Amino acid sequence: MEATLVLSPLSLTRPANPFLSLPTRPAYRLPTIRSAISRVKKEATVSTIKTNLENCYLMAGISYKGLTVKQFQDLRKALPDSTKLIVAKNTLVFKAIEGTPWEALKPCMTGMNAWLFVHSEEIPPAIKPYRDFQRERKLENDFTGAVFEGNFYGPGDFKALETMPTRLEIYAKLLGSLKGPASNLVGTIQAPARELVMTLQAYVQKLEEESGGGGQ
Q1: What are the backbone dihedrals phi and psi of residue 84, each rounded to the nearest 5 degrees, phi first?
Q2: How far apart are CA 114 and CA 60, in angstroms?
């Protein structure tokens, strides 16, 4: 009687090659070119904002949702040379102003904002072009807030900024009501520009208080 050899399926399986069993690499992705470019752009935006904060007297947010590229171009052309308009994400703007007096703008960090940087002591002339632009095109987009001299101005407080007296108006009012000797005026005019404006503003305010706080 012949013996029958029965092979199990398992006996036909080849032994595992230990040299083919490579360790599994950790699951991670190398930075892509796109992400690297995005990071560089963000850093450049933060740097641009910080640069525009130098010698800046007022920074304001403007809601730009719905505005077209053409409207932005027209608005930029209408602004004085001392005023810059920059579109930037709220997170990048806050990163640039965090830890500075401009951090008071935090309440504006919602929605889509364009940012107005005023590099002049003449605040009303810097704001007026946008008001004219807004009125002519019947836009509902308004200022979302501003910081001036460390104080936050909400949308409802802009009238105080828009009606501030200009330097020429202060001069005219001062010269029209000045009662002291001419030598006092000469000494004041020799002061630095900003100190001069602040001095004149204080003097005009004093005169108004003495006269009963008469309005404009």
Answers
A1: -120, 140
A2: 8
CA 159, distance to chain mean position in Å, is 20
CA distance 40 to 61: 24
3-state secondary structure of 50: helix
Alpha-carbon distance of 26 to 8, in angstroms, equals: 38
The DSSP code for 121 is S
pLDDT digits (tens, 9 = 90+) for 147-182: 999 999 999 999 999 988 877 777 777 766 655 555
pLDDT above 90 as % of the chain: 48
Amino acid (1-letter code) at residue 4: T
**Positions in the chain whose pLDDT score sits under 70:** 1-31, 37, 175-201, 203-216
DSSP notation for 63-112 = E-TT--HHHHHHHHHHS-TTEEEEE--HHHHHHHHTTSGGGGGGGG-SS-
Tokens of 50: 């910080």
Full-model pTM: 0.65
Sheet of 83-87, strand order: 83-87, 113-118, 58-63, 143-148, 151-153
Residue with tokens 């936050």: 152
